[in-house]
Amino acid sequence: MKIGEVSRITGTNVETVRYYERIGLLPKPSRTGGNYRSYAAQDVDRLKFIRHARGLGFDIADIRSLLDLGEHPERDCCEVDQIATSHLVSVENKLRQLEQLQQELVRMLRQCRGGQVADCRIMLTLAER
Amino acid sequence: MKIGEVSRITGTNVETVRYYERIGLLPKPSRTGGNYRSYAAQDVDRLKFIRHARGLGFDIADIRSLLDLGEHPERDCCEVDQIATSHLVSVENKLRQLEQLQQELVRMLRQCRGGQVADCRIMLTLAER
DNA sequence: CCTTGACCCTGTAGTCGCTACAGACCCCAT
DNA sequence: ATGGGGTCTGTAGCGACTACAGGGTCAAGG
So what's the ipTM on this one? Predict the structure, then answer.
């Protein structure tokens, strides 16, 4: 399977596939006579895993660890749990931050009464503190 | 006022202050005999504005526009409102995305029953789809 | 007077996860 | 033989910083 098809199947940009190979997240595939990358079903599965994990916001380092763990199926799954849990924690932290931010923005916007920039409450709020 | 003091007052990294100057967000300050940057109160205010806006998640381009508007106090404040509103919208979009993500992560983590990586529900979930 | 140490200078490269080229090559259909 | 679509490598760009290296400046203490 050539890179374009892999790209289509997994919904991954061709350049991204090559990028994953470059950083060692995907193994170097075999090549055709014309030096085209030739992927096996296994590679596609690995890429799907990566994309799904990225979709859930895991960073590349985490995904690397998860893939490594996948290659040691006899190990205890608590390491997997740990990675996922700590990711969830950081997502929840970001969520709280964003909520606060949203509330501050709403508060700021509610004060706007129109008029000139000179009297703009939003600009004043930003200038304060 | 030297850059270190400005840094302390505003809680901004020294390198960040220089970065803002480089990208034209802060004006080039005058220099002392020893070629040290010498800031006026005005510059500190501008930097505070920038940091406050960054804290609210506005990107540099937005901040540039807001600062420009601040220099035209006679203009109508609706442009300010527009920038803030569209930022709020994007924050709310990100918020919704993060909430979904969080729920998916929670769902995934609830399935974990311990045991070996081979049977790990989290790994299976990531591999699926 | 000299040294020490804190601060400051410029310029460049690194971060993260891609994305976007340029310029070349391969392959298949017409 | 030609055209166009795919692929190749290598490099640079994004945003918003951050982190040096390798030097200069300045005030206090010995």
Answer: 0.88
Residue of B83, B113, B126, B61 whose CA lies nearest to A78: B113
Alpha carbon of B24: minimum distance to chain A alpha carbons (Å) = 19
- Whether A84 sits inside 8 A of B109 (CB atoms) is yes
**CB atoms B73 and A116 under 8 Å:** yes
Residue of A43, A59, A68, A105 to mutate when probing chain B, most B C-beta within 10 A: A105
Choose among A74, A30, A72, A25: nearest CA to A46: A25
Rounded Cα gap, residues A116 and B51, in angstroms: 23
DSSP state, residue A57: T
Between chain A and chain B, the number of residue pairs with CB atoms below 8 A apart is 155
For A117, which of B77, B104, B128 is closest by C-beta distance? B77
Show residues of chain A in contact with B95, CB under 8 Å. Answer: 95, 98-99, 102
Residues in chain B: 129
Q: Is the predicted pLDDT of residue B62 greater than 80, yes or no?
A: yes
Render pLDDT for A67-101 as a digit per residue (tens, 0 to 9).
Answer: 999 999 999 999 999 999 999 999 999 999 999 99
